[in-house]
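batch job 7 of whatever, protein = ABC transporter permease
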Amino acid sequence: MTSAGTYTPEPGAAPLPRMIAAQAALETRMLLRNGEQLLLTVVIPTLLLVLFSSVDVVDTGAGKAVDFLAPGILALAVMSTAFTGQAIATGFERRYGVLKRLASSPLPRWGLMTAKTASVLVTEVLQVVLLTVIALALGWSPHGNPLAVLLLLVLGTAAFSGLGLLMAGTLKAEATLAAANLVFLLLLVGGGVIVPLDKFPPGAQDVLGLLPISALSDGLRDVLQHGAGTPWGDLGILAVWAVAGLAAAGRFFRWE
């Protein structure tokens, strides 16, 4: 206090960008300190990449196994953070009243969602760097346009974030925990991550190819393994899921 009735710093809310940055940093630290989240977002993708690249378990077609697997594991990493991890964490925050209390703070609700999204993106950057280093050490030889890869990752993040927030904001926390893990396991097997989609019956291939994980893994594989241009078809599928998921989350998300 510098004089009677005058305080330094002046009382009041911090600037909005600073509040969002502080909340994003908090969300990221909480995620990195959570052992279960680290298992889901880092350990499992890393083990799958190393195991299936080193042991001939699944027929991944011509060429090195790691060239097929690395793009799919990158897609799995995006799903594990933006969908599974975010859905579970947000679901329990909603259950324990954390979201309700944060909603009454100076940080607006859209600012809280922005901070969560920023935390997801920071985590994904760490995942991509780690998995890329490991894949390169295993002999991965990526090709293609980095901008196309970035666009796929951003749209994939938006799609999975919308679906994760929709699940967390509509189901009970326990139901979200079970459903998110079940979806993770099902899409790990049926989303073209480890098992090529052409191993499934033709009818199933058509349906599975419309899933966001399939579009993301196939798009990344087309660019990074085959050196293709911008995969507009896969980007279109991801864009539809992103718009639908985020719109539904914005419409049906319940804060308590």
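notes: The radius of gyration is 20 Å.
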